Amino acid sequence: MDFSSSFKIKTYENQGLSYFHLTHASPCLDMIATPLQGDAQVDVSILDFGPGVIIKRRNHGSALEEYQFADHVLALQLPVPDEVSIDTYIDVLGGLSHSPFLASGAKAQWIIPSDVWLFQLHLDVRWLRTVLGQQAMEDYLELSQATSRKAYDRQVLFAVASACEYAFTQGLANGVVDRGRWQHFMTDILLPCIMSDIAEHKSVTRQKILGRALDYVHEQFSMPISIEKLAMVASTSVRNLQIIFKQELGISPGTYIQQFRLHRFRHLLTQAGSVTEAAYASGFKHLGRLTERYARVFEQKPSTHLLKPVRDRFHIGALGDVESVLD
Questions:
Q1: Element holding 152 (H helix, E strand)
Q2: What is the 3-state secondary structure (H, E, C) of 180-222?
Q3: Domain 205-305 classified CATH 3.90.550.10?
Q4: Residues of the chain with CATH 1.10.10.60
Q5: For position 27, what pLDDT does the model report?
Q6: Percentage of the chain modeled with pLDDT above 90
């Protein structure tokens, strides 16, 4: 893969998007976002430089985001460089893949807190390997094995977040950044963590239970799901499952199921031939109550979104499209 000397940068600043639109705009092609209450808005700025993107974003409500990254895409999630944001970020619970550094092709269930600025980097691993070298990439894979954000030193996270902030600011300020500059940015962001010590933290049992429960909901949402069945799948009691959902997500299992179905319904409307078809595919059997709830949450009728897809706007490192994103 021949990368030439300069990257064209495309920027998308100050976009207040709902999760419906963020899902379609995200450079991660397989993302399912579920606000934990209602319909959350997201402030987001996106810097797209071809083999990667840097996103700076803030939620106006807590959400759970599930990602399945492409085989050539690895991802990082980082706080902005201030002590309060770093402490909040480290203490966020819920879901699986708590490492902020994910390997290519990884699956993640990330809890996104409300009113906290975060960075996300999605990078083409084939390009990054040319930047860091094979040994550093192998060290990065070890970095991604930690099961808790608490395994990472706060000072290291601060240094990495500062480097990310600098790269983001410089990228927004320039229409074109040469290849060597981007390589330098990525080295500054990743090497402090690759070279740092990682504390040992065992995966918390309640995270495993929650992860299994979420996986089941995401796979079986179109079918009836009882709390008893969900507890059995998650290998716990009904009471413990309810406690874990409340501790980790702040809502009950039943409320999460309804929220997940409602947002999947909104997504499926863009592909379905009728509101009824999308409703049944989302696990809803009572259309009247669904229409009322949809209008209350989204301030529109379901038919508003019927067969009106939002065009995907970003991709990462597609080899066939290299000429369109690189000078």
A1: none
A2: HHHHHHHHHHHHHHHCCCCCCCCCCHHHHHHHHHHHHHHHHCC
A3: no
A4: 205-305
A5: 59
A6: 40
